[in-house]
């Protein structure tokens, strides 16, 4: 006989599997869109810029409103760390 903990564990495993499947489908979609965009003549230098701008416009507001109460204040030290991460990353 299974206890309630085992059912919860199975549900968590299923959620993880579905999240990984969705991530793989997103990667496949990005690959297809990239291939089509590059085949129709979008520059290899300009495409990542467009991709990052679109990601910022889509994810920025979501991150802002979901993390509004939990994020630390934006200090000069934090901005400098972001800059260094962007520079080397």
Unreliable parts: none
- 3D shape: flat
Q: What is the residue-averaged pLDDT?
A: 89
Distance between the termini: 51 Å
Strand-residue proportion: under 5%
| SSE topology string | HHH
Structural class: mainly alpha
Bin the helical content: over 70%
Q: Quickly count the domains.
A: 2
Helical segment tally?
Answer: 3
Radius of gyration (CA) equals 20 Å
Largest β-sheet summary: none
Number of strands: 0
Transmembrane segments: 45-66
InterPro entries: WAT1-related
Protein name: WAT1-related protein
Keywords: Membrane, Transmembrane, Transmembrane helix
Quick description:
The protein is mainly alpha-helical. 79% of the residues lie in helices and 0% in strands.
List keywords for this structure.
single chain; mainly alpha; 2 domains; 89 residues; 3 helices
Summarize the SSE layout with pairings.
Layout: H1 4-39, H2 46-66, H3 76-88
Structure characterization notes:
There is one protein chain. This protein is mainly alpha-helical and 89 residues long. It has two domains: 1-42; 43-89, no CATH class. Helix content is 79%, strand content 0%. The protein contains three helices and no strands. The longest helix has 36 residues, at 4-39. It is flat and about 50 Å long. This is WAT1-related protein. InterPro entries: WAT1-related (IPR030184).
């Amino acid at each position: 006989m299974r206890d309630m903990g085992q059912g919860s564990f199975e549900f968590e495993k299923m959620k993880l599997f579905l999240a990984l499947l969705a991530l793989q489908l997103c990667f496949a979609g990005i690959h297809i869109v990239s291939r089509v965009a590059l085949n129709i003549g979008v520059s290899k230098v300009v495409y990542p810029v467009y991709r990052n701008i679109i990601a910022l416009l889509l994810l920025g507001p979501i991150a802002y409103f979901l993390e509004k109460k939990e994020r630390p204040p934006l200090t000069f030290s934090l901005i400098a760390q972001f800059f260094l991460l962007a520079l080397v990353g």
